[in-house]
Input
Amino acid sequence: MSRFEDKPTYTLWQMVLYMLRLGTLGFGGPVALVVYMHRDLVEDRKWITEADYKEGLALSQLAPGPLAAQLGIYLGYVHYRILGATLAGIAFVIPSFLIVVALGWAYVRFGGISWMQAVFYGVGAAVIGIIAMSAKKLTEKSVGKDKMLWAIYLVLAVVTIITESEIAWLFIAAGVLVWLLRAPPKWLSRGGLNAAAMTQIPMAGSLFGSMDVSLLTQIGLFFAKAGAFVFGSGLAIVPFLYGGTVTEHQWLTEKQFVDAVAVAMITPGPVVITVGFIGYLIAGLPGAVVASLATFIPCYLFTVIPAPYFKKYGKLPGVIAFVDGITAAAIGAIAGSVIVIAKRSIIDIPTVLIALVTVALLWKFKRLQEPVIIAAAAVVGLVLYPLLKG
Output
């Protein structure tokens, strides 16, 4: 019997409520959200098996679009198929969408959000401590003492730190390497044609982007490209968005874009929901809705369409080896991204102390909830930042 056919130990409603809670209280961006799902659904609740989680993480790394949202969609699919994937995805995204739309309204109404710098000063440092602890646990669980997987893990961590980005082809290369060494295939892949076809899609997207269409249609086409052609975590979409919204279309000023990224970092849920804030600044509520739908629908389709094949062939030795390789690469990239994000958030002695205290608290109190730490760090930031920068 395949894992897909195993009877779930939870209801669809329980999964939806969990995703709703994660979307409301899950701070820290894609790296943190991915490890929260592992801790909560695999380790604590045991709703999802380790193998299903690894398959979902591998598919989320392979497919273009925001990492955390795709993993949430896949985990909803595991036992409840299309309905589970759809409801889990909506529940995960809706809370942060409503928050960024409200912030977008306040931003337009009151002109700027300077207090966010103070909040992010404290929250950003605490998030580093949270992610570091989570990445440690995920490494121990998934990489263990396997020397080959450790080598892949370390290479990806170093590459991520140096390039400050997640390089999609390295994930695939890691999977292929472990596959060829541990379960060499007896047949040759026929994937070359598909890969060649995929290289043409971004050019087709550029063609559509140049057409003379209404503003909402332009927003829809641009953000659909963002959702369909950007690999890696939600953070990877930021350079693409900058190029389109500030440089190419000139919808936003430099300051507005930086504020939009700040909104994404201090709100819970997927970082890529910043598209809702950006859409609101460009064209109000309709712009926010169109930008969000256009970004998330491709990532939803890229998850649910290949999901049955991942489930069907997931137990083949070659697939297991391939997934192991990609998982080690993905976790290495997550570990490396802790350093990358830290370079932007740990900027002085108080932020170092906030991060260290966060690690110490999570180390000592295993059941301490992250939202409590985030709230305390936000208060510390609001108090300290004006004193230090004033």
Notes: The chain has 16 helices and no strands.
